[in-house]
Amino acid sequence: MSKPTTVGVVTPQTARFESPLTLKSGATLPSYELVYETYGTLNADKSNAVLICHALSGNHHVAGYHSEHEKRPGWWDNMIGPGKPIDTERFFVIGLNNLGGCHGSTGPSSINPHTGKPFGASFPVVSVEDWVETQARLADRLGIHQFAAIVGGSLGGMQVLQWSVNHPDRLRHALVIAAAPKLTAQNIAFNDVARQAILTDPDFHGGDYYAHGVVPRRGLRIARMLGHITYLSDDAMGEKFGRMLRSGAYNFGYEVEFEIESYLRYQGDKFADSFDANTYLLMTKALDYFDPSHHHGHSTLSETMRAARARFLVISFSTDWRFSPARSREIVKSLLDNNLDVSYAEITAAHGHDAFLMEDPHYHNLVRAYMERITGEKAA
Hints:
The protein is of the alpha/beta class. The protein is 33% helix and 15% strand.
C-alpha cells in the first residue's frame, strides 16, 4: 500500500444552472450556481464516482489545498486522497458546496440578479431534498448516471439517506456516518437556541445586514459555541481542558478564566470570521425539517426505506450523544426490515459527534475495506 499523501493543490469549479428549481418550500430559484471540487480521474464508463455530502458548516473543499501556501487542507483530507480510505487513485471524488451555502454556491450572500443586492432575508429556505435535487443535476452535468458511493457524516449522512430513497438507482453504495433518521426534540431545541442568538443580534437587521455593512458576529459566535459543545463528548472535553485556569487562580469575575471558555470563544470567533449567519440559519432549519418518512407520507422509516436499492455502511460512535448509536441502529433496522444489504459498526471513540472527522485507525480501516470492495464493480 502506498504511503498516504494529499491530492495537492485543487481549484474549485462553478456550474451554473439556468433551469428553474422549485424548492420544497414552494419557492422557485430561476437560476443558481454550485461550486464543487473533484479529485481523481473519472473512468471511461463513469462507474467510479463518489459524492461527498458535507455537514452543517462544511463546503466543497474536502481534500487538498487551494494553494501551496495554504496551511490547512480540506475538511476531510484525512479520509480522502491517494492511498487514503476513499482512495483518489481508484475513485473520482466530488465535493460541493450546498445551495444556500456561503462558500461560492448561490446563497443568501449572493447577489440577486433582479435587485443587484444580496439576497439576504429573501433567500428561500432550503431542504435536504432540495440539496439532493441540485446534486443530481450536477451529476447529470458531469455525465454521471450512477455513483459508486455517496458518503456523508452528520447532516451529510442525512443527504445520503435522502439520495437512497429519492434516486435509488443512482447510487450503488450509501455510507451513512454519525447520522440520524430525523432530529430529536433536544436537537431541534439546540438549533433554535443557536438561531435565536443570531436572530436577536442587533446587527442582524432582519437578515439584511449586508446592506448595513455589518455582520451579526455576536450571535454567530454564540451559536457556534453552543454547537461546538454538542459536538464533543464530556470525557474528551474533560481530558483536554478539565478545570484548568488560564491564570492559575480564580478572579471572581466574568472574563475568561477557564481554558474551556477560552477555547470556545476562539472557536466562535474563528467561525464568525468565515461563515455567513443567514447560511447558518438555513442549514440548521434543513436539519430540523429532515424527516424522509414525513415527507414521503409514510408512518415508519422502514416503510420509507422500502424504496432504497443501495448497499449500506452505517457507522456510529460510542460517545456521540448528539446523534447517538441508537439513532444509527434505527436506520439499520429500517434497512433490515426491507432485506437490504447493510453493514453496521459502532466505533469506540472518545471525541463525541466530531469523531467522524477524526483520524481513527479502526474507523478508517473499516471505510477503507468497504471502499475496496466497491472497486471493480460495474455500474448498473
